[in-house]
């Protein structure tokens, strides 16, 4: 077998083991999760894995035929109640991502000049996805922000935000809001954007390739914190506001300089707007 084909198969095997297999291992039943939002989160992660497979095949990191075969084989295991999910939650995802045609991957839509130069950046992002997918606190926070009903959200806000270093609800298969979850969400948005956009500064990567790569990554991941939806943006700000008050109380700070809280909330809002803009304007990015 030619070395190139061996490498492609190795890459796909690593993708299956590090990204797809952990999603399959996540529970899908109410008996374990007890919250529809977490089941929806698992399905969303499954769809995201399919789009990573598509981008990887466009980058010639995987064989397109082998990637298609893998997606078809694993579709029933990574996606739960797809038609219902797509009907209720399609607005969380970039409109240019193929949903109705799944599980079949589309043919190549991007012609990269030198896709091999993007392999290390793509692999780094897959590692970040694998780590984040294995993080129950981050998964629970994202599910709560994105997929809970308004009534469920209001109830969770009444219950309060967990402040412990290891939030308990997430470990018990429940939606939850926590200080740690907020911190990891902000870190995820920052590090994923930075990892993708470093390609724009590389002298080794053709500039149109780098912009096409950033567009592709942005379309895939921005659903994780759907700040392009006003209701989701507001939820994020509500949590940040509550966390500020909790921190002030925990540190026993009776008073802070005027405008401290508003400055903090503006910075959080700025991060959300950057994430929203990075995703929603990805289609117009150009050299």
Question: Could you please describe the fold and organization of this structure?
Answer:
- Helices cover 65% and strands 0% of the residues.
- The protein is mainly alpha-helical and 287 residues long.
- The model has no long low-confidence stretch (mean pLDDT 87).
Brief overview, please?
With 287 residues, the chain is mainly α. 65% of the residues lie in helices and 0% in strands.
Task: Please supply descriptive tags for the structure shown above.
287 residues; mainly alpha
Tell me, briefly, the overall form: globular
Instruction: Report mean pLDDT, rounded to a whole number.
Output: 87
Number of strands: 0
Q: Largest sheet at a glance?
A: none
User: What is the quaternary state of this protein?
Assistant: single chain
Beta-strand percentage range: under 5%
Low-confidence stretches: none
Amount of helix: 55-70%
Order of helices and strands: HHHHHHHHHHHH
Give the end-to-end Cα distance, rounded to a whole number of Å. Answer: 39 Å
Itemize the secondary structure elements and their pairings.
Blueprint: H1 3-25, H2 36-58, H3 64-78, H4 82-89, H5 119-133, H6 136-147, H7 150-159, H8 168-171, H9 179-197, H10 207-221, H11 230-250, H12 260-280
Helix pairs in contact: 1-2, 1-3, 1-5, 2-3, 2-6, 2-10, 5-9, 6-9, 9-12, 11-12
């Amino acid at each position: 077998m030619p070395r190139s084909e061996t490498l492609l198969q190795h890459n796909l095997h690593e993708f299956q083991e590090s990204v797809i297999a952990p999603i399959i291992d996540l529970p899908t039943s109410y008996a374990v999760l007890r919250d529809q939002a977490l089941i929806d989160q698992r399905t969303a992660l499954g769809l995201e894995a399919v789009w990573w497979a598509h981008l990887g095949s466009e980058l010639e990191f995987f064989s397109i035929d082998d990637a298609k075969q893998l997606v078809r084989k694993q579709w029933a295991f990574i996606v739960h109640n797809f038609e219902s999910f797509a009907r209720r939650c399609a607005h969380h995802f970039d409109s240019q991502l193929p949903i109705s045609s799944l599980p079949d991957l589309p043919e190549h839509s991007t012609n990269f000049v030198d896709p091999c130069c993007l392999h290390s950046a793509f692999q780094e992002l897959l590692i970040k996805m694998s780590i984040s997918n294995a993080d129950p606190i981050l998964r629970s926070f994202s599910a709560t922000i994105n997929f809970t009903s308004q009534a469920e959200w209001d109830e969770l806000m009444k219950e309060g935000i967990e402040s412990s270093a290891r939030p308990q609800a997430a470990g018990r298969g429940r939606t939850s809001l926590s200080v740690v979850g907020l911190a990891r969400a902000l870190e995820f948005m920052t590090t994923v954007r930075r990892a993708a956009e470093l390609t724009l500064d590389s002298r080794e990567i053709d500039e149109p390739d780098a912009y096409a790569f950033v567009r592709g990554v942005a379309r895939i991941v921005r659903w994780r914190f759907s700040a392009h939806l006003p209701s989701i943006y507001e939820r994020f700000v509500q949590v940040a506001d509550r966390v500020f008050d909790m921190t002030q109380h925990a540190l026993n700070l009776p008073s802070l300089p005027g405008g401290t809280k508003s400055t903090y909330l503006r910075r959080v809002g700025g991060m959300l707007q950057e994430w929203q803009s990075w995703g929603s304007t990805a289609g117009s990015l150009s050299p």
